[in-house]
Amino acid sequence: ITIREERFYNLVTKSYYPLTVDISLQNKKSTTTFTGGGFYTVNPSLHDIWVLDSLDGKKVQLENFPSGFPQLEFHLDGGRVMGFGGCNQLTGTFYAIENEIYFNPFATTIKMCEENNGEHAFLKALGKKRYMYQIENLHLRLTNQDGSVMIFRKVD
Questions:
Q1: How confident is the model at residue 10 (pLDDT cuts 50, 70, 90)?
Q2: Distance between CA atoms of 62 and 133, rounded to whole angstroms?
Q3: CA–CA separation, 75 vs 94, rounded Å?
């Protein structure tokens, strides 16, 4: 069994999986390989809506997000994540291995945002792709290897 960090497109379901899985069966005369898509099992507590509470130790303020605080909604089936950046909607995929979470690039709508909007800082932080994650007391903590931290609170 081989797991590759390569997107797999399923022609039947017309959906992408974040990982490609190869299973090879061998007998004396030949080897048969089956290929499919998959994702790692994730802590089921992650499957919810999380609103940004702090970014790099600074509590988010409404004046930086006049249209509403950023939020992420994780769907464990298929490793989908969608949300709101503070001005624009966003969507993407993720996968987790043990206590690490990996974000693939996000797609966002392209609305004209107010000048003082903090969305850029939030999207830049999400763009770091790999985080250690911890869920405790209805809070999701994402810590990047560079030391930056985002803390979200559960709202649903």
A1: confident
A2: 25
A3: 9
Instruction: Give residues with Cβ within 8 angstroms of 49, minimum separation 6.
Output: 71, 72, 73, 154, 155, 156
Strands (DSSP E) contained in the chain are 2-4, 8-10, 15-17, 19-26, 31-38, 49-55, 58-59, 71-75, 80-84, 89-97, 100-103, 107-108, 130-136, 139-144, 149-154
User: What's the chain's Rg over C-alpha atoms?
Assistant: 18
User: Up-side HSE of residue 9: CA atoms within 13 Å toward CB?
Assistant: 2
41-59 mean pLDDT: 90
Give me the pLDDT at residue 76, please.
Answer: 84
pLDDT of residue 114: 79
Any idea which residue has 């390569």 for tokens? 6
Residue with tokens 């992420």: 72
